[in-house]
Design goal:
Elements (H helix, E strand, L loop, with lengths): L3 E6 L1 H4 L9 H16 L3 E6 L2 H9 L8 H25 L4 E6 L2 H4 L1 H16 L3 E6 L13 H11 L4 E6 L20 E2 L4 H4 L15 H14 L3 E6 L5 H6 L6 E3 L8 H9 L4 E5 L1 H8 L10 E5 L7 E5 L5 E6 L4 H7 L7 H5 L13 E3 L2
Parallel strand pairs: 1-2, 1-5, 2-4, 3-4, 5-7, 6-8, 9-11
Antiparallel strand pairs: 7-8, 9-10, 11-12, 12-13
Bound molecules: adenosine-5'-diphosphate (ADP) and the ligand N[C@@H](CCC(=O)OP(=O)(O)O)C(=O)O.
Keywords: Amino-acid biosynthesis, ATP-binding, Cytoplasm, Kinase, Nucleotide-binding, Proline biosynthesis, Transferase
GO biological process, one term: L-proline biosynthetic process
InterPro entries: AceGlu_kinase-like_sf (IPR036393), Asp/Glu/Uridylate_kinase (IPR001048), G5K_ProB (IPR041739), Glu/AcGlu_kinase (IPR001057), Glu_5kinase (IPR011529), Glu_5kinase/COase_Synthase (IPR005715), Glutamate_5-kinase_CS (IPR019797), PUA (IPR002478)
Length: about 375
Amino acid sequence: MSSTIVVKIGTSSLTQPNTGNLAISTIAALVETLSELRQQGNRVILVSSGAVGVGCARLGLSERPRDIARKQAVAAVGQGRLMRVYDDLFTTMQQPIAQVLLTRTDLVQRSRYVNAYRTFQELLDLKVIPVVNENDTVAVEELKFGDNDTLSAMVASLVEADWLFLLTDVDRLYSADPRSNPDARPIPLVQHLGELAALQVETAGSGTNWGTGGMATKIEAARIATSAGVRTAIAAGKYPANIVKILQGEAIGTQFAAQPRTPNARKRWIAYGLIPTGKLYLDRGALKAICEGGKSLLAAGVTAIEGQFEASEAVQLCDRSGVEIARGLVNYSSRELQQIRGRRSDEIPAILGYLGADTVVHRDNLVLIQ
Ligand SMILES: Nc1ncnc2c1ncn2[C@@H]1O[C@H](COP(=O)(O)OP(=O)(O)O)[C@@H](O)[C@H]1O
Ligand SMILES: N[C@@H](CCC(=O)OP(=O)(O)O)C(=O)O
């Protein structure tokens, strides 16, 4: 049966740790595996990091630039080089590829999100492997994915993938960074991300100087992807052929079970495309109403508000301790909500001096976060 498979590979796997030069044998093995998967009828997307690392090697820079403009310039050098290498190798496998560079804003605006979705579908229908990266050269700091782990999870959610593979320079997730902690225990399977707290998994430490985010961003990616219904695996970038073995059911790397997928595409955009600008804390009655009753959120159930936001923006709906339970588009600004929180809906016109929406977040604009 054919699947939609998103594979993300990090800089630490694509480049030699000492010189920053391309790890050609790894890239060639990756190209072979992905081409074979494609030719077996699967829909395949590659999310590849490496623009900054490869750009640095090309320009003879020995470390990742800290200055933003310099980093953006270096990425422009590396991205072209990287695509040249991919295109040469994929062409030897008769496999067409496409470059897709995304910024975070492309997923925030509904029209651009839908447009990106359509372009991916078209490319996959044409049997092309899209090679995706963040558009580092134009992305602005405040609106960045920041790391390709998050980007790949959002792409996997956008295209409703069956699998997300996060290929890195360790063979799986451990209870702590295995580089600094030889007693770290391997974690083969995560049924639910809640288990990680009980397993006391530490994600501090970010491997080589070239990787961004370390394990923490991979766990966050697994959270986004699994709650969008995508099975996720963390595995060694050195052995891309393991992807095929994992698809055949072998217990390699760390595998995260998928949660049921939100069937409504617009709700998935609310949950995974938008960037929340505020937090609403809910009382127990409101949590029960939205979680068990499938109801809208009313002002009466909001106990506190954090952040500055306008009506129609995305907010996180949290329990008393700040754990996010749901996300939604809010009908009132933070200023208005400060005035009406805890109050009955029929009191709102008198408090605000005008007739607003009955609900703070309507159930059609509200999605539970697993
Ligand atoms: N709990 C953990 N389990 C495994 N690796 C961890 C853990 N915590 C931190 N790490 C580090 O994360 C690194 C991988 O992240 P990173 O360097 O960002 O890779 P990539 O370039 O593939 O995104 C590993 O080399 C490892 O040192
Ligand atoms: N977009 C950046 C990659 C950022 C990133 O997440 O890097 P990595 O941790 O190596 O996957 C680049 O191409 O250099």
